[in-house]
Amino acid sequence: MHKPLLLTFVIVFASIAAIGSAQVPAASDPLSIGGKDAEWFAGQGGRVDTDSEPQAPFKIMGNVYYVGANNISSILVTTPQGHILLDTGTKKMTSVIFPNIVKLGFKPADIKIIMISHAHYDHMETLETIRRITGATVAALEAEVPSLVSGKDLSQNETWGHEPVQVGRILRSGDDVTLGGTTIKVIWTGGHTPGTASYVIPAQEGGRTYQIVFGGPPGPITGNPRYDTRPEDAFTSYKMLRTLNPDIVIGGHPLNAFKGKLDALVANTRPSPLALAPGQWVKMIDDSEAGYKKRLSAVAAATR
Ligand SMILES: [Zn+2]
How far, in Å, from the CA of 214 to the mean position of ligand 1? Predict the structure, then answer.
């Protein structure tokens, strides 16, 4: 596919995004939200998005970079044969991710594969636009494909959805996605949405291989009559996550994890300010699972 000059590319992309944002339906128009919960939408529509603010990009480790906003992650894995982008963020983040990739010395046009944590608009609102412009292949877990191709949020959040996405490769838990010598392992960590994924990304630096996990404990939902997380899904995810031993974990909303560390991260300080302390990973999973169990008991007690 012919690739336009980078500048044209960014401008065209930004314009598409601008048109797109103008089309976000007004909260007063229930028809435009496809029968979803109008009250919920009104609440969300009135919410100021402070999560998509610009944030300086930095190297996480090896060939793995943070290119996202201040509180919505986007990860770039670079290889000699092109790049893998994990999560594309909100429409507002079109003015964050591509400039960040360029600042790091890479070309958005070299993105060959795009994967997502899950099909909620804040992590993938621009997925189809980026796919179309770059010609990249979207690879997604089977359970998330219905939401991606329909453009509907089929999970508990029931947001206004997204442009339907052309999925080029359907993944199963445990699959490897390889590009230019880097192999990312895909793990189903359902619970937040039916096909939420975590990714294990190996990164070489200073003669050793670090394990970076993008994703983490699933954030299961209780108390929604239309979509409750199936407890067995969440417990399977916790069990799966316990088998990992990451050096660094990046979640979808990293504001707290990055707090007070940004200067050191941008300065490429080693050891990484994001390096997990011994036992921290297991504690993260334990805390999330304990919180979920507590909410399950509360729901059970309320319905008794
Ligand atoms: Zn979500």
Answer: 14
